[in-house]
Design goal:
There is one protein chain. The chain is α+β, with helices and mostly antiparallel strands. It has two domains: about 200 residues, 3 helical TM bundles of succinate and fumarate reductases (Up-down Bundle), CATH 1.20.1300; about 70 residues, no CATH class. Helices cover about 65% and strands about 15% of the residues. The protein has nine helices and seven strands. A four-stranded antiparallel sheet has the order 1-2-3-4, with no helix packed on it. It has a three-stranded antiparallel sheet with strand order 5-6-7, with no helix packed on it. A hairpin with a 5-residue loop joins strand 2 and strand 3. The radius of gyration is 27 Å and the shape is elongated. The termini are far apart. It binds protoporphyrin IX containing FE. The site of protoporphyrin IX containing FE has 21 residues, from helix 1, helix 2, helix 3, helix 6 and helix 7.
Length: about 300
């Protein structure tokens, strides 16, 4: 292959990397805003997050954007690795021509390595959350509450006898908590005329009719992954490791963005001296704030 063809193909690759990289930065902002809801505690926070996850899974535009995101990640990673490989092969020529190594930061030279670590992070991250949400078994959003209800009447005094009975409520996509089971005080087992079918749908066992649709409890999956489970008792013994690996990955992401953000704008032609400093500073702010906010989520869940 001639040198000009190599140059052309590596310029095209750089453009694609810049486009996909900036698109992925937008994805990061959107993903962060959604995940910040994990700081919102209690049943209301759990509900807000699960409703949000349901919306993300059912909205057509978001679905399309998700596929664009997956493709962008693949394109960005493959192009980046090919570019690094090409640069390595052409290095002696490039050193002599423009001393690339002299003006590239250490982050620049490590971009391929940092990117590969991020790719491994994304793959494992998607197995743990996205994979479970789409293909795994996830508990549904239910709530158990003890309610003081009349259970009998004293035949002598006529007084109503009350007792605490535990009821299970099913959060429906219509926004109501539907009572669907109760704990029999004698057998201590939950009894119900209804059952869940097709993952999220509640059916009446007698009529076989659908009663309501519910939400997958992704919130509890995330909480359980980084710390305690929804009931606050079951502790994930390996949560510390997950939190540590997430924090390290966010530091890696930060270094990757420190170089990548400004470099993408440069590739797309915004090289005017007036903007260079602004882009560099915005890029630096983005590279620090976004990964730090992401890292704060597992740390908060673990230590709270
Ligand atoms: C550290 C805090 C983070 C938390 C708590 C978190 C949580 C989640 C959850 C719960 C999902 C599943 C959503 C669903 O399937 O509906 C998800 C999906 C995903 N996450 Fe994260 N995430 C974090 C950071 C990141 C970072 C830093 C990246 C990228 C570098 C990332 C990339 C992705 C991708 C690509 C998906 C699939 C998105 C889609 O299907 O549209 N996440 N994340």
């Amino acid at each position: 292959m001639s040198k000009s063809v190599i140059l052309k193909s590596s310029i095209a690759k750089k453009y694609w990397m810049a486009f996909t990289g900036l698109f992925l930065c937008l994805f990061l902002v959107g993903h962060l805003l959604g995940n910040l809801q994990l700081f919102y505690a209690g049943e209301e926070g759990r509900r807000a997050f699960n409703e949000y996850a349901y919306f993300m899974q059912h909205n057509l535009l978001i679905k399309v954007m998700s596929y664009v995101t997956y493709l962008s990640i693949l394109f960005h990673a493959i192009d980046g690795l090919l570019l690094a490989f090409q640069n390595k092969k052409a290095r002696p020529v490039q050193y002599a021509m423009n001393k690339a190594s002299a003006n590239s930061s250490s982050a620049s030279r490590q971009m391929a390595l940092l990117g590969s670590i991020i790719l491994i992070f994304i793959a494992t991250h998607m197995v743990n959350f996205w994979g479970k949400m789409h293909f795994g078994e996830i508990p549904l959003h239910t709530l158990t509450k003890a309610v003081n209800v009349p259970i009998s009447q004293d035949p002598n005094t006529g007084q109503i006898v009350k007792a605490d009975i535990e009821f299970s409520y099913f959060l429906t996509t219509n926004g109501e908590y539907k009572q669907y089971a109760y704990k029999d005080p004698k057998t201590k087992l939950f009894e119900s005329q209804m059952e869940v079918r097709e993952e999220t749908k509640l059916f009446d066992k007698n009529s076989n009719l659908e009663v309501a649709e519910g939400y997958k409890d992704l919130h509890s999956v995330v909480m359980g992954f980084f710390g305690k489970s929804a009931n606050g008792n079951d502790v994930n013994e390996l949560a510390w490791l997950a939190v540590l690996l997430y924090t390290i990955s966010m530091a890696v992401l930060s270094f990757h963005l420190m170089h990548g953000f400004a470099s993408a704008f440069q590739t797309l032609g915004l090289r005017h001296p007036r903007y260079t400093a602004i882009i560099k500073n915005v890029g630096m702010g983005f590279a620090i704030i976004v990964p730090a906010a992401f890292a704060a989520i597992p740390l908060y869940i673990f230590f709270k």
